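[09:14] KT: can someone run the structure on this one? pasting the chain below
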Amino acid sequence: MNSKAVDFIKNFSYAITANFVSLFVSTLAILILPKLIGVEEYGYWQLYLFYSSYVGLLQFGWNDGIYLIYGGKKYKELDKGLFFSQFYMLVIFQLIIVAIIFSSSIIFVTDTKKIFVFEMTAISMLIANARYMLLFILEATNRIKKYAQITMMDRILYCCLIIAFLVFGIKDYKLMILVDLICKLMSLFYAMYSCKDMVFRRISTFYFSFKESLKNISVGIKLMLSNIASMLIIGVVRFGIEHSWDMSTFGKVSLSLSVSNFMMLFINAIGIIMYPILRRTDEKKLPSIYVTMRDFLMVILFGSLIVYFPLKVVLSAWLPKYADSLIYMALIFPMCVFEGKMALLINTYLKTLRKEKLMLKINLISLSLSVMITFVTAILFKNLNLSIASIVILLAFRCVLAEMFLSNILKISLYKDIVLELTLTLIFILAGWFINSWLAILLYTVAYILYLVIKRKDITNTIKNVRLLMSARENKEMNGKFI
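[09:31] RB: done, structure tokens below
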């Protein structure tokens, strides 16, 4: 096995370990917290997490630009003095925004609980955006081990403190938000230590590098806006649900979304290490690598949907207060298929090919459609079923649209695969929604087996290609051999 394959396996093991830790903590948050705290309290906790997921918008692409520009470079090649100045310029900028959010929330928001959520979200923004600059640098330079350690530290601390709170009977959502902030702050300190040659330098070496900042922002803002627009595709629907229904309903729907996002932890583990690798790969090999990774991924993702059926039974028994909302998992569980393909394959390839404008265009089209559908389903008709169903419809639309653009760029044909995958997704949704018995899992399993039979030749080729990749002893052996 060549050194590149060994490095890939090592980095994947670091990333997957970090994501296993995240999975465990997420399981704790999803299964334990709603069991012990009230439905409304859980709703405010989810509201904080919801708002916090958008704090990246307020760094205006600064970090994303660094990720794109320096992706594939080696850490030792970076100008440490330049990044020292960039880091503290970002911190100063974020502190100004924190002050604005605190002042605005006090003036314009009347609900004291929401004021608290807004203020804590502002603090989360300061910590998260400063930490993500360092994490993006580590990820872009392929220092995945250190990236994983920082990520795991955050989640392990969070898990320990939440367990301690629950043991002592502390169930206040405000304290749980503070725990989240403390853990993020500790992981920021560790990230700063991990990049100490970049963060801890003499103050006399600091300078306002506005030209570098503007370059990073001008490059990264398209990717940042694309990412935010991508999140808002679901976010707009959630905003609509929060506006038209109570906080308890918002919390219940958020639980179903959280469970449906489980698979994304594993997808993200691979996506983290793929970008710097693809940036260093010969562009001629990208189409064949894409087809191989795609076939491999879709078999796994569609197979994982079978987990929904026993998972729904277990969660309904464990969380009876949420049993009525878990039926919505049948509508949104397939989101992991479309989100997984977007995160690992399509977005990674578009970033590698520096197609940020195209990413933004696709996400803005999908976001516009989300706004229109949400207005009709949540505001006009106030139909919760249609609002939730629109989530997977929007994600499927975005995924198909993006893959059509990418397939034209790579000059590969994927129409038959896309039709087959949409059909299998529809069978899953119909079986999960209308059949409340073991026949549902039987129907979907039969459909999945038929999918494997139809794709058997492609799967066989994928296995051959993976073996070829892993057994190549020299990089030259890969030239012309990828099927």
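[09:33] KT: thanks! The chain has two domains: 1-208, 221-476.
[09:34] RB: yep, looked fine to me
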